[in-house]
């Protein structure tokens, strides 16, 4: 089976998209991440959902989990609201990682190797300049376990 056979339509966001809108899309569709596209609608990078959380959770709570425990639940629930003033571009990991993109004829093993190497829960399938869709980790594992 090839990437083109596994690819499904997948939502994308732009670099200027609100980080809060991206978080809502992730949650609303139970997505592991998002494909960020450039102005020409070509894949620019993959934004894992954890990276959106990383921007929303204060750095002091990430560095010292004990501090996260002392914040009451009412205030803890408001952290995602702070994403409204930030963009997807601000959520992107630095330094930039290898772009998780494969050609339509990529094999299941090639897709798995790319996901493992890039630590990406999804891979964009691109034919020339056209994005055909994406392969998610879930779909890839389903395919591999069915064999």
Automatic annotation (TrEMBL):
Keywords: CBS domain. PROSITE patterns: CBS. InterPro entries: CBS_dom, CBS_dom_sf. Residues 93-147 form the CBS domain. Pfam families: CBS. CDD domains: CBS_pair_bac. This is CBS domain-containing protein. It comes from Luedemannella flava.
């Amino acid at each position: 089976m090839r990437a083109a056979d596994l690819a499904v339509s997948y939502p994308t966001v732009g670099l200027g998209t609100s980080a809060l809108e991206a978080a809502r899309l992730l949650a609303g569709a139970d997505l592991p991440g998002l494909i960020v596209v450039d102005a020409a609608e070509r894949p620019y990078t993959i934004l894992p959902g954890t990276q959106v959380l990383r921007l929303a959770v204060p750095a002091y709570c990430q560095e010292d989990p004990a501090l996260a425990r002392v914040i009451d639940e009412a205030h803890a629930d408001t952290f995602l609201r702070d994403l409204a003033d930030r963009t997807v571009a601000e959520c992107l990991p630095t330094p930039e990682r290898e772009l998780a993109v494969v050609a339509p004829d990529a094999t299941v093993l090639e897709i798995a190797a790319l996901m493992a190497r890039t630590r990406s829960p999804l891979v964009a399938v691109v034919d020339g300049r056209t994005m055909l869709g994406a392969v998610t980790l879930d779909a890839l594992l389903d395919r591999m376990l069915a064999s």
